[in-house]
UniProtKB/TrEMBL annotation:
Enzyme class: oxidoreductase
A molecular function GO annotation: FMN reductase (NADPH) activity
EC number: 1.5.1.38
Protein name listed in UniProt: Oxygen-insensitive NADPH nitroreductase
Keyword set, alphabetical order: Flavoprotein, FMN, NADP, Oxidoreductase
Family the UniProt entry places it in: Belongs to the flavin oxidoreductase frp family.
Every Nitroreductase domain range: 12-160
Gene3D superfamilies the UniProt entry points to: NADH Oxidase
């Protein structure tokens, strides 16, 4: 038996067009309250959110994120950051730079962002994640005045939807949900899913294309270079140990 919460989660789609109607202060407060209610590793609460309201700054971030116009069009644009700088300020002698601390910061921040997105969608709003801010992460760091031990992971656009895109079919559960041990792929499952995705791409209301799912893997993984990321992380104080 389904529930309203499950129905909401299963109807998620990325929204990239918004009406001019602003997100109200009450809605922002509710979204933030829901975001802060998440679990946090050892209750470190190592996430900070930067709400970008300056139009010039927003425009620069849109360009750095890959010329994504909805970064400027959306009523709200928030940048979610893993943040251990706050802890360093409070306890200067704390030892930072460990790989596990990076993982903790990323996990905490991703969980918080997803709570925020679900809360926003429950209020009738739409969202899209903007991982493109990592494409020019050094410039983003400078624009947002991010100190050492703060890592901008992604942005989130929030607003009233001006579009209703189709829901993308997900991988078959048997291809990603295993019991006791990891399992190699079942080619028949992936072949079936590729057919499903090819039909979806051809029939959706916009941006039709001819491909399956696995056809896109090489192009996507090879095109996202960001070869300076490790150096950047070191400069920001992450994974030095």
């Amino acid at each position: 038996m389904s529930t309203p919460t499950i129905e909401l989660l299963c109807h998620h789609r990325s929204i990239r067009a918004y009406t001019p109607e602003p997100v109200s202060d009450e809605q922002i407060e509710l979204i933030l309250t829901a975001a802060q209610a998440v679990s946090s590793s050892n209750f470190l609460q190592c996430t900070s959110i930067i709400r970008v309201t300056d139009t010039e700054l927003r425009s620069k971030l849109a360009v750095l994120a890959g010329n994504q116009p909805y970064v400027t069009q959306a009523p709200e644009f928030w940048v979610f950051c893993a943040d251990l700088n706050r802890h360093k300020q409070l306890v200067p002698q704390v030892e930072l730079g460990k790989a596990e601390q990076l993982l903790v910061g990323c996990v905490d921040t991703a969980i918080m962002a997803q709570n925020a997105v679900v809360a926003a969608e429950s209020l009738g709003l739409g969202c899209v994640y903007i991982g493109g801010i990592r494409g020019q992460i050094e410039q983003v760091t400078t624009l947002l005045n991010l100190p050492k031990y703060v890592l901008p992971l992604f942005g989130v656009c929030i607003g009233h939807p001006a579009q209703h895109p189709d829901i993308k079919p997900r991988l078959p559960k048997a291809a990603m949900f295993f019991e006791n041990h990891y399992q190699p792929i079942q080619k028949s499952l992936i072949d079936e899913y590729n057919t499903t995705m090819a039909n979806y791409y051809q029939q959706r209301s916009s941006n039709q294309k001819v491909s399956g799912w696995s056809d896109t893997i090489e192009k996507i993984l090879n095109s996202v270079k960001r070869d300076t990321m490790l150096d950047y992380l070191h400069q920001q104080g992450w994974i030095n140990k």
